[in-house]
Amino acid sequence: MFANQLWSTDKESRIQFNMAQQRIRDPLHNLIEFKVTGDDELERTLWRVIQTRPFQRLRRIKQLGFSDFVYPGASHSRFAHSIGVFHTARQLMDVVRTVDGRSETRENRALAAALVHDLGHGPFSHAFETVGKRLGLKLADHEHVSDLLIRQGQVADILNNELGSGFAIDVADMVKKEGRVTVHNAVVSSQFDADRLDYMRRDRLMTGTQHAAIDFAWLIANLEIASLPTGVDDEQTGTVDTFVIGPKAIHAAEAYVLGLFQLYPTVYFHKTTRGAEKLFTELLVRIVTLAKNDSAAQTGLPDRHALIKFAINPDDLDIVLCLDDAVIWGALSLMSEAKDPLVSQFATRLRDRKLYKCVDVRARVSHEFDPESKGEAEHLAKIETCCARVNEKLTEWTKANSEDIHRVLIDEAERSPYKDDVGSLGRINVRTDGNNFVDLKQRSRVVASLSDFKLSRAYHDCNDVDAGKTIDSIIEGEVEACR
Protein backbone atom coordinates (compact mmCIF):
# COMPACT_ATOMS: atom_id res chain seq x y z
CA MET A 1 0.00 0.00 0.00
CA PHE A 2 2.76 2.40 0.98
CA ALA A 3 4.70 1.60 -2.21
CA ASN A 4 1.62 2.30 -4.36
CA GLN A 5 1.02 5.61 -2.61
CA LEU A 6 4.68 6.56 -3.09
CA TRP A 7 4.53 5.69 -6.78
CA SER A 8 1.34 7.70 -7.17
CA THR A 9 2.90 10.73 -5.49
CA ASP A 10 6.00 10.52 -7.69
CA LYS A 11 3.83 10.24 -10.80
CA GLU A 12 1.80 13.29 -9.82
CA SER A 13 5.02 15.21 -9.21
CA ARG A 14 6.29 14.27 -12.65
CA ILE A 15 3.04 15.38 -14.25
CA GLN A 16 3.14 18.70 -12.39
CA PHE A 17 6.80 19.17 -13.38
CA ASN A 18 6.04 18.51 -17.05
CA MET A 19 3.11 20.91 -16.97
CA ALA A 20 5.34 23.56 -15.39
CA GLN A 21 7.63 23.75 -18.40
CA GLN A 22 7.65 23.28 -22.14
CA ARG A 23 10.75 21.81 -23.73
CA ILE A 24 11.99 22.01 -27.30
CA ARG A 25 14.56 19.52 -28.54
CA ASP A 26 17.06 21.47 -30.59
CA PRO A 27 19.92 19.97 -32.67
CA LEU A 28 22.34 22.65 -31.48
CA HIS A 29 21.35 23.39 -27.89
CA ASN A 30 19.66 20.09 -27.00
CA LEU A 31 16.80 20.95 -24.60
CA ILE A 32 15.50 24.51 -24.55
CA GLU A 33 13.07 24.97 -21.69
CA PHE A 34 10.30 27.49 -21.08
CA LYS A 35 8.77 27.76 -17.60
CA VAL A 36 5.11 28.31 -18.39
CA THR A 37 3.61 28.19 -14.88
CA GLY A 38 4.56 29.68 -11.55
CA ASP A 39 6.21 33.05 -11.12
CA ASP A 40 8.13 33.20 -14.41
CA GLU A 41 5.83 35.61 -16.18
CA LEU A 42 8.29 36.35 -19.00
CA GLU A 43 8.80 32.79 -20.20
CA ARG A 44 5.10 32.02 -19.96
CA THR A 45 4.41 35.10 -22.08
CA LEU A 46 7.10 34.31 -24.65
CA TRP A 47 5.77 30.78 -24.98
CA ARG A 48 2.44 32.34 -25.95
CA VAL A 49 4.24 34.58 -28.45
CA ILE A 50 5.72 31.47 -30.07
CA GLN A 51 2.19 30.18 -30.68
CA THR A 52 1.14 33.28 -32.65
CA ARG A 53 0.64 33.29 -36.41
CA PRO A 54 3.62 35.60 -37.13
CA PHE A 55 6.01 33.40 -35.16
CA GLN A 56 4.67 30.08 -36.46
CA ARG A 57 5.16 31.43 -39.99
CA LEU A 58 8.93 31.26 -39.36
CA ARG A 59 8.66 27.47 -39.49
CA ARG A 60 8.09 27.87 -43.22
CA ILE A 61 11.05 30.16 -43.87
CA LYS A 62 14.45 28.51 -44.14
CA GLN A 63 17.34 30.20 -42.41
CA LEU A 64 19.66 29.79 -45.40
CA GLY A 65 17.30 30.13 -48.33
CA PHE A 66 18.65 28.13 -51.27
CA SER A 67 21.68 26.75 -49.44
CA ASP A 68 20.14 23.28 -49.36
CA PHE A 69 20.79 23.21 -53.12
CA VAL A 70 24.42 22.76 -52.03
CA TYR A 71 24.13 21.39 -48.48
CA PRO A 72 21.05 19.12 -48.26
CA GLY A 73 21.01 19.36 -44.47
CA ALA A 74 20.69 23.15 -44.51
CA SER A 75 16.92 23.12 -44.32
CA HIS A 76 16.68 24.56 -40.81
CA SER A 77 14.12 27.30 -40.25
CA ARG A 78 14.14 30.79 -38.84
CA PHE A 79 11.77 29.40 -36.22
CA ALA A 80 14.51 27.14 -34.84
CA HIS A 81 17.09 29.92 -35.09
CA SER A 82 14.89 32.41 -33.24
CA ILE A 83 14.35 30.04 -30.34
CA GLY A 84 18.08 29.31 -30.33
CA VAL A 85 18.80 33.04 -30.12
CA PHE A 86 16.53 33.30 -27.10
CA HIS A 87 18.34 30.40 -25.43
CA THR A 88 21.74 31.96 -26.18
CA ALA A 89 20.51 35.31 -24.86
CA ARG A 90 19.71 33.65 -21.54
CA GLN A 91 23.31 32.41 -21.38
CA LEU A 92 24.65 35.88 -22.15
CA MET A 93 22.38 37.34 -19.51
CA ASP A 94 24.26 35.31 -16.90
CA VAL A 95 27.38 37.25 -17.94
CA VAL A 96 25.54 40.55 -17.61
CA ARG A 97 24.32 39.71 -14.12
CA THR A 98 27.85 39.17 -12.84
CA VAL A 99 28.43 42.93 -13.18
CA ASP A 100 25.04 44.60 -13.44
CA GLY A 101 23.13 42.46 -10.99
CA ARG A 102 19.48 41.70 -11.67
CA SER A 103 17.52 44.28 -13.68
CA GLU A 104 14.33 42.40 -14.45
CA THR A 105 12.67 44.93 -16.75
CA ARG A 106 15.71 45.40 -18.99
CA GLU A 107 16.46 41.69 -18.99
CA ASN A 108 12.91 40.91 -20.05
CA ARG A 109 13.10 43.39 -22.92
CA ALA A 110 16.38 41.95 -24.17
CA LEU A 111 15.21 38.34 -23.95
CA ALA A 112 11.95 39.17 -25.73
CA ALA A 113 13.87 41.10 -28.40
CA ALA A 114 16.17 38.12 -28.93
CA LEU A 115 13.17 35.87 -29.55
CA VAL A 116 11.24 38.10 -31.98
CA HIS A 117 14.08 39.88 -33.82
CA ASP A 118 13.55 37.89 -37.07
CA LEU A 119 9.74 37.99 -37.31
CA GLY A 120 9.74 40.05 -40.50
CA HIS A 121 11.81 37.85 -42.81
CA GLY A 122 10.13 37.07 -46.11
CA PRO A 123 10.43 34.01 -48.35
CA PHE A 124 14.09 33.19 -49.01
CA SER A 125 14.97 36.09 -46.73
CA HIS A 126 17.66 38.29 -48.26
CA ALA A 127 16.80 37.38 -51.86
CA PHE A 128 13.26 38.65 -51.18
CA GLU A 129 14.72 41.88 -49.80
CA THR A 130 16.66 42.36 -53.04
CA VAL A 131 13.35 42.19 -54.92
CA GLY A 132 11.95 44.79 -52.54
CA LYS A 133 14.86 47.15 -53.12
CA ARG A 134 14.55 46.80 -56.89
CA LEU A 135 10.83 47.60 -56.83
CA GLY A 136 10.61 49.90 -53.81
CA LEU A 137 8.49 47.53 -51.69
CA LYS A 138 8.68 48.58 -48.03
CA LEU A 139 7.22 45.36 -46.69
CA ALA A 140 9.97 43.30 -48.30
CA ASP A 141 12.39 44.84 -45.77
CA HIS A 142 12.58 42.33 -42.91
CA GLU A 143 13.64 44.92 -40.34
CA HIS A 144 10.66 47.14 -41.18
CA VAL A 145 8.22 44.22 -41.08
CA SER A 146 9.70 42.94 -37.82
CA ASP A 147 9.20 46.38 -36.30
CA LEU A 148 5.55 46.44 -37.37
CA LEU A 149 4.84 42.92 -36.14
CA ILE A 150 6.34 43.63 -32.72
CA ARG A 151 4.56 46.96 -32.26
CA GLN A 152 1.10 45.88 -33.39
CA GLY A 153 -1.08 42.80 -33.73
CA GLN A 154 -0.97 39.46 -31.91
CA VAL A 155 2.58 39.71 -30.63
CA ALA A 156 2.15 43.24 -29.30
CA ASP A 157 -1.15 42.36 -27.62
CA ILE A 158 0.38 39.45 -25.72
CA LEU A 159 3.49 41.37 -24.67
CA ASN A 160 1.54 44.42 -23.52
CA ASN A 161 -1.25 42.50 -21.78
CA GLU A 162 1.11 40.22 -19.86
CA LEU A 163 4.17 42.40 -19.27
CA GLY A 164 2.75 45.90 -19.13
CA SER A 165 1.50 48.58 -21.48
CA GLY A 166 4.28 49.83 -23.72
CA PHE A 167 6.44 46.71 -23.30
CA ALA A 168 6.13 45.85 -27.01
CA ILE A 169 7.31 49.32 -27.99
CA ASP A 170 10.35 48.98 -25.71
CA VAL A 171 11.18 45.62 -27.31
CA ALA A 172 10.79 47.02 -30.83
CA ASP A 173 13.04 49.95 -29.94
CA MET A 174 15.72 47.58 -28.67
CA VAL A 175 15.60 45.51 -31.87
CA LYS A 176 15.76 48.72 -33.88
CA LYS A 177 18.69 50.00 -31.78
CA GLU A 178 16.73 53.02 -30.57
CA GLY A 179 16.18 54.45 -27.11
CA ARG A 180 18.44 54.25 -24.09
CA VAL A 181 21.40 51.89 -24.56
CA THR A 182 22.46 49.69 -21.64
CA VAL A 183 24.56 46.57 -21.36
CA HIS A 184 21.42 44.56 -22.05
CA ASN A 185 21.41 45.91 -25.61
CA ALA A 186 24.70 44.09 -26.18
CA VAL A 187 22.84 40.80 -25.79
CA VAL A 188 20.69 41.75 -28.80
CA SER A 189 23.18 43.72 -30.90
CA SER A 190 26.96 43.63 -30.51
CA GLN A 191 30.01 41.77 -31.74
CA PHE A 192 29.01 38.92 -29.41
CA ASP A 193 25.24 39.13 -29.65
CA ALA A 194 22.96 36.12 -29.28
CA ASP A 195 21.92 36.23 -32.94
CA ARG A 196 25.42 35.76 -34.31
CA LEU A 197 26.45 33.26 -31.66
CA ASP A 198 23.51 31.07 -32.63
CA TYR A 199 23.53 31.30 -36.42
CA MET A 200 27.27 30.76 -36.77
CA ARG A 201 27.10 27.47 -34.90
CA ARG A 202 23.71 26.43 -36.25
CA ASP A 203 24.59 27.08 -39.89
CA ARG A 204 27.87 25.21 -39.50
CA LEU A 205 26.10 22.25 -37.90
CA MET A 206 23.29 22.01 -40.42
CA THR A 207 25.39 22.48 -43.54
CA GLY A 208 27.94 19.97 -42.30
CA THR A 209 30.86 22.21 -43.22
CA GLN A 210 33.99 21.65 -41.18
CA HIS A 211 34.97 25.32 -41.42
CA ALA A 212 34.01 28.05 -38.96
CA ALA A 213 34.35 26.16 -35.68
CA ILE A 214 34.37 28.40 -32.59
CA ASP A 215 35.07 27.72 -28.93
CA PHE A 216 31.73 28.96 -27.64
CA ALA A 217 32.20 27.77 -24.07
CA TRP A 218 35.56 29.49 -23.71
CA LEU A 219 34.28 32.71 -25.27
CA ILE A 220 31.35 32.84 -22.86
CA ALA A 221 33.62 32.02 -19.93
CA ASN A 222 35.89 34.94 -20.86
CA LEU A 223 33.25 37.53 -21.74
CA GLU A 224 33.30 40.54 -19.47
CA ILE A 225 31.43 43.83 -19.18
CA ALA A 226 33.25 47.13 -19.48
CA SER A 227 32.32 50.79 -19.83
CA LEU A 228 33.73 52.05 -23.12
CA PRO A 229 33.78 55.55 -24.62
CA THR A 230 31.43 56.45 -27.46
CA GLY A 231 31.69 59.27 -29.94
CA VAL A 232 32.65 60.33 -33.44
CA ASP A 233 36.28 60.29 -34.53
CA ASP A 234 38.37 61.41 -31.53
CA GLU A 235 35.58 63.29 -29.76
CA GLN A 236 34.10 61.37 -26.83
CA THR A 237 30.38 61.93 -26.26
CA GLY A 238 29.79 59.46 -23.45
CA THR A 239 30.28 55.89 -22.34
CA VAL A 240 28.32 52.67 -22.67
CA ASP A 241 28.58 49.25 -21.07
CA THR A 242 29.16 46.37 -23.47
CA PHE A 243 30.87 43.00 -23.88
CA VAL A 244 34.66 42.75 -24.01
CA ILE A 245 36.91 39.70 -23.85
CA GLY A 246 39.59 38.88 -21.33
CA PRO A 247 43.23 38.39 -22.40
CA LYS A 248 42.97 34.59 -22.23
CA ALA A 249 40.39 34.50 -25.04
CA ILE A 250 42.34 36.28 -27.79
CA HIS A 251 42.83 33.10 -29.80
CA ALA A 252 39.18 32.16 -29.34
CA ALA A 253 38.21 35.61 -30.61
CA GLU A 254 40.51 35.11 -33.62
CA ALA A 255 38.74 31.84 -34.41
CA TYR A 256 35.39 33.61 -33.98
CA VAL A 257 36.27 36.29 -36.55
CA LEU A 258 37.77 33.74 -38.94
CA GLY A 259 34.81 31.43 -38.48
CA LEU A 260 32.30 34.09 -39.49
CA PHE A 261 34.45 35.09 -42.44
CA GLN A 262 34.81 31.48 -43.63
CA LEU A 263 31.05 31.03 -43.72
CA TYR A 264 30.72 33.64 -46.47
CA PRO A 265 32.72 32.04 -49.31
CA THR A 266 31.79 28.50 -48.28
CA VAL A 267 28.08 28.91 -47.44
CA TYR A 268 26.43 32.33 -47.73
CA PHE A 269 28.18 33.39 -50.95
CA HIS A 270 28.47 29.93 -52.51
CA LYS A 271 28.20 30.23 -56.29
CA THR A 272 25.27 27.82 -56.54
CA THR A 273 23.30 29.47 -53.75
CA ARG A 274 23.86 32.91 -55.26
CA GLY A 275 22.98 31.60 -58.72
CA ALA A 276 19.62 30.34 -57.43
CA GLU A 277 19.03 33.67 -55.68
CA LYS A 278 19.64 35.53 -58.95
CA LEU A 279 17.03 33.42 -60.75
CA PHE A 280 14.58 33.83 -57.86
CA THR A 281 15.07 37.59 -57.82
CA GLU A 282 14.41 37.99 -61.54
CA LEU A 283 11.42 35.64 -61.31
CA LEU A 284 9.74 37.60 -58.53
CA VAL A 285 10.53 40.95 -60.11
CA ARG A 286 8.77 39.78 -63.27
CA ILE A 287 5.81 38.34 -61.33
CA VAL A 288 5.25 41.57 -59.40
CA THR A 289 5.73 43.74 -62.49
CA LEU A 290 3.24 41.73 -64.56
CA ALA A 291 0.65 41.70 -61.78
CA LYS A 292 0.94 45.47 -61.24
CA ASN A 293 0.47 45.99 -64.98
CA ASP A 294 -2.78 43.97 -65.04
CA SER A 295 -1.04 41.03 -66.68
CA ALA A 296 -1.28 38.54 -63.83
CA ALA A 297 -2.70 35.99 -66.27
CA GLN A 298 0.77 35.81 -67.85
CA THR A 299 2.27 34.47 -64.60
CA GLY A 300 0.40 31.17 -64.45
CA LEU A 301 -0.89 32.08 -60.98
CA PRO A 302 -4.55 32.62 -60.03
CA ASP A 303 -5.62 36.09 -58.95
CA ARG A 304 -6.09 34.93 -55.36
CA HIS A 305 -2.54 33.62 -55.02
CA ALA A 306 -0.57 35.31 -52.25
CA LEU A 307 2.15 36.52 -54.64
CA ILE A 308 -0.38 38.22 -56.91
CA LYS A 309 -2.21 39.74 -53.96
CA PHE A 310 1.09 41.04 -52.59
CA ALA A 311 2.06 42.53 -55.95
CA ILE A 312 -1.23 44.42 -56.14
CA ASN A 313 -1.33 45.39 -52.43
CA PRO A 314 2.31 45.48 -51.32
CA ASP A 315 1.52 47.56 -48.22
CA ASP A 316 -0.92 45.05 -46.70
CA LEU A 317 0.81 43.44 -43.72
CA ASP A 318 -1.72 40.60 -43.53
CA ILE A 319 -0.86 39.58 -47.09
CA VAL A 320 2.85 39.63 -46.23
CA LEU A 321 2.13 37.13 -43.46
CA CYS A 322 0.81 34.78 -46.15
CA LEU A 323 4.20 34.71 -47.89
CA ASP A 324 6.76 32.07 -47.04
CA ASP A 325 9.07 29.57 -48.74
CA ALA A 326 6.31 26.96 -48.98
CA VAL A 327 4.10 29.38 -50.91
CA ILE A 328 6.86 29.93 -53.47
CA TRP A 329 7.80 26.25 -53.81
CA GLY A 330 4.15 25.31 -54.20
CA ALA A 331 3.68 27.88 -56.95
CA LEU A 332 6.66 26.85 -59.11
CA SER A 333 4.75 24.16 -61.01
CA LEU A 334 2.00 26.66 -61.84
CA MET A 335 4.54 29.28 -62.88
CA SER A 336 6.41 26.76 -65.02
CA GLU A 337 3.34 26.73 -67.28
CA ALA A 338 3.12 30.53 -67.47
CA LYS A 339 2.70 32.32 -70.76
CA ASP A 340 5.51 34.70 -69.91
CA PRO A 341 8.75 32.99 -71.06
CA LEU A 342 10.95 34.28 -68.22
CA VAL A 343 8.47 33.19 -65.56
CA SER A 344 8.07 29.80 -67.16
CA GLN A 345 11.78 29.13 -67.67
CA PHE A 346 13.09 30.48 -64.37
CA ALA A 347 10.36 28.73 -62.34
CA THR A 348 11.20 25.45 -64.06
CA ARG A 349 14.91 25.96 -63.42
CA LEU A 350 14.36 26.55 -59.70
CA ARG A 351 11.93 23.66 -59.38
CA ASP A 352 14.29 21.22 -61.09
CA ARG A 353 17.58 22.79 -59.94
CA LYS A 354 18.69 23.53 -63.50
CA LEU A 355 20.64 26.67 -62.72
CA TYR A 356 22.71 28.96 -64.87
CA LYS A 357 26.41 28.19 -65.24
CA CYS A 358 28.74 30.37 -63.17
CA VAL A 359 31.80 32.15 -64.53
CA ASP A 360 34.02 33.51 -61.75
CA VAL A 361 35.09 36.82 -63.27
CA ARG A 362 37.16 37.96 -60.30
CA ALA A 363 39.08 34.68 -60.09
CA ARG A 364 40.04 34.85 -63.75
CA VAL A 365 40.99 38.52 -63.59
CA SER A 366 42.96 37.99 -60.36
CA HIS A 367 44.91 35.16 -61.95
CA GLU A 368 45.96 37.48 -64.78
CA PHE A 369 47.13 40.38 -62.60
CA ASP A 370 48.17 38.65 -59.38
CA PRO A 371 48.85 34.97 -60.14
CA GLU A 372 50.87 34.50 -56.94
CA SER A 373 48.26 36.27 -54.76
CA LYS A 374 50.78 38.72 -53.34
CA GLY A 375 48.10 41.37 -52.80
CA GLU A 376 50.22 44.31 -53.91
CA ALA A 377 48.31 47.60 -54.19
CA GLU A 378 49.05 48.09 -57.89
CA HIS A 379 47.74 44.63 -58.78
CA LEU A 380 44.66 44.98 -56.58
CA ALA A 381 43.79 48.31 -58.21
CA LYS A 382 43.96 46.74 -61.66
CA ILE A 383 41.79 43.85 -60.56
CA GLU A 384 39.13 46.23 -59.24
CA THR A 385 39.18 48.34 -62.39
CA CYS A 386 39.05 45.33 -64.69
CA CYS A 387 36.18 43.63 -62.84
CA ALA A 388 34.16 46.85 -62.90
CA ARG A 389 34.71 47.24 -66.64
CA VAL A 390 33.82 43.62 -67.35
CA ASN A 391 30.57 43.96 -65.42
CA GLU A 392 29.75 47.18 -67.22
CA LYS A 393 30.30 45.60 -70.63
CA LEU A 394 28.32 42.48 -69.72
CA THR A 395 25.43 44.62 -68.49
CA GLU A 396 25.39 46.53 -71.77
CA TRP A 397 25.56 43.34 -73.81
CA THR A 398 22.77 41.52 -71.98
CA LYS A 399 20.48 44.56 -72.23
CA ALA A 400 21.05 44.76 -75.96
CA ASN A 401 20.80 41.03 -76.62
CA SER A 402 18.07 39.83 -74.26
CA GLU A 403 14.46 40.09 -75.36
CA ASP A 404 12.32 38.19 -72.87
CA ILE A 405 14.93 36.40 -70.77
CA HIS A 406 18.17 37.66 -69.22
CA ARG A 407 20.99 35.87 -70.99
CA VAL A 408 23.61 36.92 -68.43
CA LEU A 409 23.03 37.52 -64.72
CA ILE A 410 25.71 39.50 -62.89
CA ASP A 411 26.54 39.03 -59.22
CA GLU A 412 28.73 41.33 -57.14
CA ALA A 413 29.18 41.29 -53.37
CA GLU A 414 31.68 42.25 -50.71
CA ARG A 415 32.16 41.25 -47.10
CA SER A 416 34.62 42.65 -44.61
CA PRO A 417 35.99 40.01 -42.21
CA TYR A 418 36.23 42.48 -39.37
CA LYS A 419 34.95 46.03 -39.07
CA ASP A 420 36.83 48.34 -36.75
CA ASP A 421 35.85 51.73 -38.14
CA VAL A 422 32.54 52.26 -36.35
CA GLY A 423 33.74 53.12 -32.86
CA SER A 424 34.37 51.04 -29.78
CA LEU A 425 31.00 49.26 -29.98
CA GLY A 426 31.58 48.03 -33.52
CA ARG A 427 34.78 46.16 -32.79
CA ILE A 428 35.98 43.44 -30.46
CA ASN A 429 37.67 44.99 -27.46
CA VAL A 430 40.28 43.07 -25.50
CA ARG A 431 41.13 43.79 -21.87
CA THR A 432 44.87 43.90 -21.40
CA ASP A 433 46.72 42.69 -18.34
CA GLY A 434 46.95 46.37 -17.35
CA ASN A 435 43.13 46.71 -17.51
CA ASN A 436 43.15 48.83 -20.64
CA PHE A 437 41.01 48.04 -23.68
CA VAL A 438 42.39 47.67 -27.20
CA ASP A 439 41.01 46.60 -30.52
CA LEU A 440 41.49 42.91 -31.30
CA LYS A 441 43.41 43.94 -34.43
CA GLN A 442 46.13 45.37 -32.22
CA ARG A 443 46.56 42.03 -30.47
CA SER A 444 46.04 39.64 -33.38
CA ARG A 445 48.22 39.57 -36.47
CA VAL A 446 45.78 37.07 -37.95
CA VAL A 447 42.83 39.47 -37.75
CA ALA A 448 44.94 42.46 -38.80
CA SER A 449 46.07 40.67 -41.96
CA LEU A 450 42.60 39.73 -43.18
CA SER A 451 41.41 41.38 -46.38
CA ASP A 452 37.87 41.88 -47.65
CA PHE A 453 36.19 39.02 -49.48
CA LYS A 454 34.85 40.17 -52.83
CA LEU A 455 33.06 38.33 -55.59
CA SER A 456 32.31 39.19 -59.20
CA ARG A 457 30.50 36.52 -61.17
CA ALA A 458 28.50 36.09 -64.34
CA TYR A 459 25.85 33.42 -64.86
CA HIS A 460 24.51 32.14 -68.17
CA ASP A 461 22.58 29.23 -69.64
CA CYS A 462 25.11 26.47 -70.33
CA ASN A 463 23.38 25.86 -73.68
CA ASP A 464 23.76 29.53 -74.67
CA VAL A 465 27.13 29.12 -76.39
CA ASP A 466 27.10 32.69 -77.70
CA ALA A 467 26.64 34.14 -74.19
CA GLY A 468 29.48 31.98 -72.86
CA LYS A 469 31.82 33.08 -75.64
CA THR A 470 30.83 36.71 -75.12
CA ILE A 471 31.70 36.53 -71.41
CA ASP A 472 35.09 35.01 -72.24
CA SER A 473 35.75 37.62 -74.93
CA ILE A 474 34.84 40.56 -72.70
CA ILE A 475 37.05 39.29 -69.87
CA GLU A 476 39.99 38.79 -72.21
CA GLY A 477 39.49 42.18 -73.84
CA GLU A 478 39.29 44.10 -70.56
CA VAL A 479 42.32 42.28 -69.14
CA GLU A 480 44.36 43.43 -72.11
CA ALA A 481 42.96 46.97 -71.85
CA CYS A 482 43.92 47.18 -68.17
CA ARG A 483 47.48 45.90 -68.50
From TrEMBL:
Checking Gene3D superfamilies in the record gives:
Hypothetical protein af1432 (1.10.3210.10)
> Known SUPFAM superfamilies for this protein?
HD-domain/PDEase-like (SSF109604)
For this entry, the protein name equals: HD domain-containing protein
User: Which positions fall inside the HD domain?
Assistant: 78-200
Tell me the lineage of the source organism: Bacteria, Pseudomonadati, Pseudomonadota, Alphaproteobacteria, Hyphomicrobiales
Q: Which Pfam families match?
A: HD, HD_assoc_2
- The lineage's top-level taxon is Bacteria
